[in-house]
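Predict the structure of Methionine--tRNA ligase.
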Amino acid sequence: MSNFYLTTPIYYVNGAPHIGHAYTTIIADAFARYRRQKGDEVFFLTGTDEHGLKIQRAAEDRGISPQQMVDENSARFRELFEQLRLTHDRFIRTTDADHKKTVAEMVARMKASGDIYLDKYEGWYAAADEAYYDESEIADGKAVATGASVEWVEEESYFFKLSKYAEPLLEWYRSNPNAITPSGRRNEVASFVEGGLRDLSISRTTFSWGIPMPEHPEHVLYVWVDALTNYITAVGAFDDTERFEAFWPADIHFIGKDILRFHAVYWPAFLMSAGLELPKQIVAHGWWTNDGIKMSKSLGNVIDAFELAERYDLDVLRYYLLREIPIGNDGNFSDARVVERNNAELADNIGNLVNRTFAMAGKFIGGSVPAPRDITESEDVALRDAAYAARDAIDKAFEDRELHRALEHLMAFSSEVNNYIQRTQPWALNKAGNTERLEQTLYNALESIRWIALLAAPFTPDASRKILAGFGQTTEAHLSFDTLKTWANLPAGTPLEAPGVLFEKLEAPVEEEENSEKSAPQDQKSAKKAKKDEKKVEKSKKSDDSESTGLIEFGDFTKVEIRVGEVLTAEKVEGADKLLKLSANVGEETPRTIVAGIAKSFAPEELVGLRVAMVTNLKPAKLFGIKSEAMILAAKTTDGKLALARYDERVEVGTRIS
Ligand code: ME8
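Done. Here is the predicted structure for Methionine--tRNA ligase.
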């Protein structure tokens, strides 16, 4: 048994929780449950980030005190996580007393290392991101990477010697290749640091909502120094050394890709300065969009987390979010896809398997678990080996932080068990009076179902518990992976109780009418239209089955990520008269490099500033020694030149085209 410490970001409390906040916390929850089933002592931390200019201004806008606002909004996050039945061990608030104390001590240590000095800050600040930006990162009064408005700041400030840590950080990335995943994110951070680091302003004097700088209370600490330190507060930091040693360094910090720089540059530099160990891993996940469009308050398209939790069974929501996209990728939230995955995967595959097996056991063998027999038949050997392989593959998927793969393997195993039943035909064995073989096949199917329940528990905990209750197994210990070390651990003679419908089939959602609220798929009024739409989905599925039509599934299309990117720079590639080397902002922290075969149609200077469609999730290709990280879409004109798919400023940079 070992200790396992995992964290989510702590969320800003200037607004209501949305799908993104639910997503990160659900990822962490799945890992926490998995590690507990492995027998680890898990500490799972989440919470709220409550200081800073952004929060102070949001409170001013509402005409209430910051304290009142953070109390109200933090409570909303806490409620959400309760409603989602997440299993965090602490919900930390940066206004907690122990945290304020830890931050003061952290800063004192950074100072003792000679890393803090007083100077004057002059530069750009985006309150929405709580981030400083260089001139080169700004265009039209906005941060290029995020679109947040920037303001000019000129004031006395304490600085942290971030520049001193550029080399140690690069060394850390080099010697710990898995410290930042996915690897594309590590490269992104490394090239940012290679570009040189400037010292970081870590205090402000023009607002007051924050933790004061020790010994200089007229300065308020930069909110990221405060926020990041939460990760050590929660495990005892400087107060409870025994606990701190037991849990620090954190095993995984889960974050969204938006806050990579803070976690992979600032945080390790602060820790080095304070003489503390660095986290073992930072896992940066992608971004959910709504109908391909980045969610934002101003567009009013933010997917509310409470609404989601009400619209869907929690297991289904978790399954969808974790199955639909690999952790590092962006994804488009779609009700139609939730319904498809629920119906085809959860209901038809697992739900059906459980129902039919319990029904057969009730009808044919008296409703209790038969005795296991030696495995000799080749189909039994194959089934047991498939169970072992699924277990090992799921372990590996967790190791690789690839939860979608874990679910692929789970579903593949469930299909195997369904096939086993088709092949062995217990109903025929029953008819023929072959009791011995009948009992053997049903034992194997029931034991497989127990394996599925355990392996699915990090993802669909309610369904797993229902299945296990069907075997009379109702304690935490029954979830332990220890019982998956060998086959046939389902005790003979156990009375069986059919768990009932595990996953209700859902009707396809109705297309949204303008200005109408999203309705639950089961909504009475829309049932008629939903039926029609479901048929449409059914129909298209059927035609897609035939390869000869050349049609693809909607899911195949959604694999291609096409975004609006803005060309920032363009130049000729030496020795290649067709190629141009571009850099483009695709809505990420750092621009992408693109090598495009468009030099015959465009002069480099014509391209700068254009917003064009580009494929952003192709595997990078090397052309003339330059790594191309995206592909620009173009069509041939009648005179053999190329025309680009262009967008004007109404479309935000980074918007996904769907
Ligand atoms: O950044 N898709 O807080 P925050 C997926 N307080 N995940 C998303 C998302 C989306 N569209 N939008 C947000 C902060 N997230 C700081 C963190 S940590 C010491 C301080 C998730 O409320 C994702 O995890 O803006 C992202 O990193 C986090 O919410 C940002 O939450």
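The mean pLDDT is 91.
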